[in-house]
Amino acid sequence: MSFEKLGLSENSLNAVRRKGFEKPTDIQKEVIPRLLRGDNDIIGQSQTGTGKTAAFALPLIELIDEEIKEVQAIVITPTRELAIQVADEIRSLRGKRRINVLPVYGGQPIGPQIRNLRRGVHIVVGTPGRVIDHIERGTLSLDGVSYFILDEADRMLDMGFIEDIERILRHTSEEKRVLMFSATIPREILRLARRYLKDYEVIRIQDRSLAPELVEQIYFEVRPNKRFSLLCSILDEKDFYGIVFCQTKRETRELASKLKTKGYSVEALNGDIPQKGRERILERFRKGKIRVLVATDVAARGIDVKDLTHVINYSIPQNPEAYVHRIGRTGREGKRGKAITFVAPWESPKLRDIERVARVKIKEMAYPTEYGRRKRDIPMVS
């Protein structure tokens, strides 16, 4: 199927061509026609990196009335980085339409956001806390919102934002359409849907594994005191470009510091770093000036960097949803990637749970047969 058959205008088709999109992804094939022509609410389940943003952005651009200078659509994202990214993607797809898109998020002065809102904004993309802040200040009215988009709903749940989402929803009209997008659909998301969505349909793109098909998934059973040496051997692979996930902010700082002393091109990314500093680090990472990013789940949420070769779970994810989102940073846009998880001997039950819920098979890799170039420096994993 081509984009021409989805019901998009010539303006949107030209924007798609400029972006270099050749044919729609599965989620785009399902969502675009439904949002353009239907009236049902939608829950869309699709892997990370499958074009979910364009799936709702392209129809929104068609449906927004640019002559009405009020907020007609709002997109809620779990993190600042994702809010910026989604806003940029919508702008890149609007073509010649004069649609104003504004990201609103914490960590930056609220004054410029208020001034932009007063000038007239059609689409707001924001994090829950800052959206609520604007609502309570009276600087953001959702009375005219016709489209409410919840992006990465399962991460909203993990990060404790569901009450905030419900609070925002109560400020919107009953006549709006609601779309939720998520890599996984936990029971809590369905409960939220039953409470706030009208006639909705669930679109599930993946039938089997929730993980990206082009990601090779392996794990090492390794004791914590041996993880660093094993990590260094993996980072020494030719053209390594990836993210190393840790559980805590402190661990990201300590690990990045140790890697820097070894000469690796690395930076830590965590919630303690001011927003401008995080944006600078991400920009350097996107340009390849940093080859290794050591991050927490929250800080790395919404990172969309092309051509990442690896994701390394230095700390095993807390749940299967976090695993799916982490490894979705690689294996995107037809490129292959590798996801490597370090598992302590006592963490095997957690690994089995990830495999069962995410419907994946993670292959055990024996060290040092696969990563043996530095084996004189690395003790045998035990």
UniProtKB/TrEMBL annotation:
UniProt enzyme class: hydrolase
Report domain DEAD-box RNA helicase Q positions. Answer: 1-29
> Per the UniProt entry, what species is this protein from, by scientific name?
Thermococcus sibiricus (strain DSM 12597 / MM 739)
Ordered alphabetically, the record's keywords are: ATP-binding, Helicase, Hydrolase, Nucleotide-binding, Nucleotidyltransferase, Transferase
Instruction: Supply one GO molecular-function term.
Output: catalytic activity, acting on DNA
CDD domains annotated for this entry?
Answer: DEADc, SF2_C_DEAD
The record's listing under InterPro entries reads: DEAD/DEAH_box_helicase_dom, DEAD/DEAH_RhlB, DEAD_box_RNA_helicases, Helicase_ATP-bd, Helicase_C-like, P-loop_NTPase, RNA-helicase_DEAD-box_CS, RNA_helicase_DEAD_Q_motif
Q: What is this protein called?
A: RNA helicase
Keyword Membrane belongs to the record: no
Outline the extent of the Helicase ATP-binding domain.
33-203
